[in-house]
Amino acid sequence: MAGNEIFRQRDKSNNNDIGYFHQRIFQYIDKCRVPENGKEGGWDVIYQNEDGIILPDGDIVHTVYVEMKNKHNTMNSASAGKTYIKMQHQLLSDDDCACFLVEAIAQKSQNITWKTTVDGKRVSHKRIRRVSLDQFYAITTGEENAFYNMCMALPNVIENVVKHDGTVQIPHDVVLQELKNIALISGKETEDMAMAIAVYMLGFSSYLGFSSLIENTIDHAANDNNLKRIYAYATHKLP
User: Fold this and answer.
1) Any idea where the domains of the chain sit in the sequence?
2) Is 94 exposed, middle or buried, given 0-12, 13-18 or 19+ CB atoms closer than 10 A?
3) Considering only Cβ atoms within 10 Å of each terminal Cβ, which end of the chain, N or C, has fewer?
4) Cα 37 from chain centroid (whole Å)
5) In what helix (H) or strand (E) does residue 117 lie, and over which residues does it extend?
6) Rounded Cα gap, residues 128 and 39, in angstroms
7) Residues 192/159, Cβ–Cβ less than 8 Å
8) Torsion sign, CA atoms 9, 131, 42, 19
9) Is the pTM of this model over 0.85?
């Protein structure tokens, strides 16, 4: 479908900025730091909490080393293997830590053991984890809906940028119309907020805070199918 291809191309050109944007934000979150390039092992974010960080299986560590990616499927097998080995080495040198592959755009909200293949062997470790961005925000801030709340503040910032920069252009194609259709789901009063919600729903439909936006609007199955149902709704409503 033409609409799918447009979304795919926009995703390729823009999502590199998403990971960088969120990586830099963590330098303003308490107990997090963003090392300079090549420093402190080359980690994207390091989170340390002297009160302890509780992992899903009940283990408690005091440091989390983060490799941040836009999406897990953007890594080829060699890159994934190299990243996993780096995390293994970190665990060997520090038995009071965990390593997270944090995905800005994960398929769903999750904090799971990362299972991958290294040198032809299937490997996993309970302290090497794949974590969606919303879950990482929740861990570092102590607020379950921290990522959602941050996203809700962005429309006003974006609006100010658009108003003060005449070079910003709004695309006039099928994507805009599809977003408008998706925006109808949110029931928000202002068009700007509704459109922002539409964009968020496409990328974060199962994330903490966002899933509740569509609970009573689209016939629910599993969270994994949210995006397909939202997109089907949009394309069905196209004139």
Assistant:
1) 14-141, 146-236
2) middle
3) C
4) 22
5) strand 116-118
6) 21
7) yes
8) positive
9) no
Where would I find the H helices in the chain? 2-25, 77-93, 133-141, 146-164, 174-186, 191-204, 226-236
pLDDT tens, position by position, 132-143: 999 999 999 999
- Residue 209's pLDDT is 65
Model confidence pLDDT, tens digit, residues 56-99: 999 999 999 999 987 656 688 888 999 999 999 999 999 999 99
**Which of these, 196, 103, 191, 213, lies nearest to 151 by C-alpha position?**
196
Q: What is the pLDDT of residues 10-50, one digit of tens each?
A: 444 444 555 667 678 899 999 999 999 889 999 999 999 99
What's the Cα-to-Cα distance from 222 to each of 30, 40, 206, 230, rounded to whole Å?
A: 35, 40, 10, 13
Instruction: Residue 52: count other Cβ atoms within 10 Å of its Cβ.
Output: 11
